[in-house]
Design goal:
The chain has 482 residues and is mostly helical. The protein has 21 helices and three strands. A three-stranded antiparallel β-sheet has the order 1-3-2.
């Protein structure tokens, strides 16, 4: 039997609207976005205060524990637990047919431990890898939980139980008992991380070493799994089974792009977790059809995306910018080096270098050389004559040209004298290393080579006077040496 679209579409819209309204924080009063934002920051709604406090505790708890989950490469464990504890949630409800937070926590924790023991038993007794065992346990336990929730909803009071909210989350449904339970679990996590940090640090990076020192690695591991189970169960009320693993993974994954120190990862992860939870609550409060849990995850995903693109060290666009900047710098230094070689060829007697000679030396079209000369002029490394045919070094340009030639020839001499390379096999290596040698390394090379005057090919090595002397016309004389 087929229903006409005029009937089906309004029914679907009504169902989606009701579900979205149920997931929203606050009342359904029709107000403008500005008024809603002011109401949020005044914290005048009791439901908002409870939901916001719960979101903050959720972000703190998941952020701290998620740091260890991501560092230990156990992200699938969080996803497995978040789905596997669903039968425990249903059993906790069936204990006394009420949504008692403590009963649900106990039931979910026991089932979560059972799921991890099942994964361990499968990996020990079969050839299956841990990821396959986790996938098997995740799907099986989750299916059992769905069946149990379906049975609960067929009970006389099942539709009013609110147990289905654990599937997709409903921050507005949190009450004082839920907040108390979240505060207790967050406090336990904070104490566990604070006093057990050194052991957890060893567990995260070198468990075998910790066991050789007699540290309780097994106890720390199982205690962490227990706390992760607590965090998953308490977070399910706000974001649901499907999205709770995101709150364990996104904040610490973002923090790992900003720092490589574990204590900083934990601090940043907790801050990002709290911030994304608050942003999710804020945007959910602005409209009548905006659920809280998905907005938390979307806020976290947005922060991760921005960090992925613009992180100072690991950002994708930042790396591209550094690579492009380095490429331009190398091309600039190669042009200065070619100018130095031409000046050296004429015994440093000429006042400037013609663009045509530079194009022939670099084997590049004249138009490209003009572009490179424009770049040198913008960087104040060279000046161009009025007719546009000849380049002159500026004092800074001369200093940079002398430095890059010095780096090249010192490295060639180091490879031939110290590393016993053939003189005809050192040029290509020196072409690469000349652009990255720091001043301290150069000074060490000079001392190691006893302040040499010439390279393996008999060419003069520019000395400190040539590089650091700020003279107006640097190309009037030969290199002065050290």
């Amino acid at each position: 039997m087929r229903f006409p679209k005029t009937v089906v579409l309004p029914v679907i819209w009504l169902l989606l609207t009701n579900a979205a309204h149920a997931a929203r924080i606050g009342d359904l009063t029709e107000t403008s976005i500005t008024e809603q934002a002011l109401r949020f920051f005044t914290f005048s709604d009791p439901s908002l205060r409870l939901a916001l406090l719960g979101c903050i505790l959720l972000g703190l708890n998941c952020g701290l524990l998620g740091g260890f989950v991501v560092v230990r490469r156990m992200s699938l464990v969080g996803d497995t637990l978040s789905h596997a504890v669903l039968p425990g949630v249903a059993l906790g409800f069936l204990w006394n047919h009420t949504k008692d937070p403590l009963a649900i926590l106990i039931g979910a924790t026991l089932v979560g431990c059972l799921s991890m023991l099942t994964v361990s038993a499968i990996t020990r007794t079969t050839r299956l890898k841990e990821d396959a065992a986790m996938g098997l346990v995740l799907s099986s336990f989750y299916a059992i939980g769905i069946c149990l929730i379906g049975m609960i909803q067929r009970l006389p009071s099942g539709n009013k139980s609110g147990i289905d909210k654990f599937l997709f989350g409903q921050a507005a449904a949190m009450n004082g008992h839920d907040i108390t339970l979240m505060a207790v679990t967050s406090g336990l996590t904070l104490l566990f991380v604070t006093f057990g940090y050194r052991g957890l640090l060893t567990l995260s990076f070198h468990r075998a070493f910790g066991e050789s020192l007699g540290l309780p690695m097994g106890f720390l591991h199982h205690a962490m799994m227990l706390l992760i189970s607590f965090a998953v169960v308490t977070a399910m009320q706000a974001v649901g089974v499907v999205l709770v693993s995101a709150m364990l993974i996104i904040p610490p994954a973002t923090a790992c792009l900003l720092t490589d120190r574990l204590h900083r990862v934990l601090i940043l992860s907790a801050i990002i977790g709290i911030a994304t939870a608050v942003f999710g609550a804020f945007f959910s409060f602005l409209g009548s059809n905006l659920p809280t849990g998905p907005f938390m995850v979307l806020a976290g995903s947005l922060v991760f995306t921005m960090t992925f693109l613009f992180s100072p060290k690991q950002g994708w666009l930042t790396r591209l910018w550094r690579q492009q900047t380095q490429k331009c710098r190398i091309e600039r230094e190669n042009t200065l080096k070619a100018m130095y070689h031409l000046a050296e060829r004429y015994g440093f007697r000429e006042e400037g270098i013609t663009l045509l000679e530079l194009a022939n030396t670099r084997r590049e079209p004249l138009e490209q050389i003009r572009q490179r000369s424009d770049d040198l002029i913008r960087q104040k490394l060279a000046t161009l004559t009025e007719d546009g045919s000849m380049l002159h070094f500026t004092p800074e340009g001369w200093r940079k040209a002398s430095a890059i030639v010095r780096n090249h020839r010192l490295w060639e001499l180091y490879l031939t004298n110290i590393m016993q390379y053939g003189a005809d096999h050192v040029h290509d290596d020196a072409e690469k290393i000349e652009h990255v040698l720091g001043e301290d390394t150069v000074r060490q090379l000079e001392r190691r080579l006893d302040f040499p005057q010439t390279d393996p090919h008999g060419k003069a090595i520019p000395g400190a006077r040539d590089i650091h002397a700020a003279i107006a016309k640097p190309n009037l004389g030969k290199p002065t040496g050290y």
